[in-house]
Amino acid sequence: VEIIVEEEQGDESQEFLQHLPTEIGMGGNLLYLYQGFWCPQVSIKGMMLFQQHFKAQETDLILASIPKSGTTWLKALTYTIVNRSRHSLEKSPLLTNGPHGVVPFLEFDVSSRNQFQEQDKLPGPRIFGTHSPYTALPCSVKDSATKVVYVCRNPLDMFISYWKFSVNIPKENEEHLSLGDAFDKFCQGLHGYGPFWDHLLGYWKASLERPDKVLFLKYEDIKKNNVLYIKKLANFLGLPFSVEEEEQGLIEETSRLCSFESMKNHEATRTGTGPLGIPASAFLRKGKVGDSLNYLTPSMVSRVENLIQEKLQDSGLSF
Ligand code: A3P
């Protein structure tokens, strides 16, 4: 069914939404089951607008993720790599505007047809973030040379990062779920853009089919070998570091500028806001691998491990 969503987000889309199944997700927020995924109420219309009105350009870069998987970090790294010849790292707009300011989300920040038309005028390469599943991306993204970088994270850490994030954000008319209740919902796939296994598999399969188009990254790998992955990312984007740049230490500088410790102190993080007016500091909590083990019982861990085993088996993807 073709539903036209306009900037006024009028009755037609409202009517359409009324027919979608809904559930309360692990963050206590309303989710709509849309095209096989649980889309949060705050972004469902934005996601439909994105699907209908976004016209990808060949030079566009799309950074995709499920929330709390390292989106903020990937945005910072990609923006820095792409813009390294435009300004010195000390004067990067990343410092003042923040990763979510320099790389907008397609579902949250560009939320009207007019805004998409305005975006068409921007010089390339344009960089955008999205939480949309691969199957829900507009054809102009999937069928063009537009490059897509996906970042994912061990689901246990992602869960804790998500739960902490939702508990720390003040919300009206939404309840905070206990860790145990939130965990049950997570295991049922009831979280923003979940189930996580389908989200992961969509991008994973696309990266196997078209490795020149979709780069699949893991948070833990980037953490472990930052320099290698910054190089990989730059190569994939078609912007490899020259020997001269390497000798000047530009890769290490990029790594430092975008490190958790450095970003936590950027002006944009200390004083700015991120998507939906959320304090930018909420997007940098601990930045550690394995923090979930401080919160989850062994039986919770094994429940997720079994789920991962069951859902990802034979895919070649593991955690
Ligand atoms: P924690 O809550 O475990 O600390 P997203 O950006 O997708 O919302 O993900 C947020 C998670 O990534 C948070 O994890 C956050 O601390 C971490 N993160 C943000 N910036 C980071 C950086 N520069 N380096 C490492 N981790 C980062």
Morphology call? globular
Q: Helix count?
A: 17
Q: Please provide the ordered H/E string of secondary-structure elements.
A: HEEEHEHHHHEHEHHHEHHHHHHH
Secondary structure: number of strands? 7
Bound ligands: adenosine-3'-5'-diphosphate
Gyration radius (Cα, Å) is 19 Å
Spatial sequence of strands, sheet with the most strands: 5-4-6-7
- The helix content, as a percent range, equals 40-55%
Strand content: 5-15%
The major β-sheet equals: 4 strands, parallel
Task: Give unreliable regions as ranges.
Answer: none
How far the N terminus sits from the C terminus, by CA atoms, comes to: 37 Å
Structural class: alpha/beta
| Rounded mean pLDDT score | 92
Written overview of the protein:
It is a single chain. This protein is an alpha/beta fold and 319 residues long. It is built from 17 helices and seven strands. It has helices at residues 11-18, 41-53, 71-82, 93-97, 99-102, 113-120, 139-142, 155-168, 179-187, 196-209, 219-224, 226-236, 243-248, 250-257, 260-265, 267-271, 298-312, and strands at 22-24, 30-34, 37-40, 61-65, 127-130, 147-152, 214-218. The strands form two sheets. The chain has a four-stranded parallel beta sheet with strand order 5-4-6-7, sandwiched between helices. A three-stranded antiparallel beta sheet has the order 1-2-3. The longest helix has 15 residues, at 298-312. The two termini are 37 Å apart. The model has no long low-confidence stretch (mean pLDDT 92). Adenosine-3'-5'-diphosphate (A3P) is lined by residues 65, 67-73, 76, 157, 161, 164, 258-260, 263, 283-287, 291.
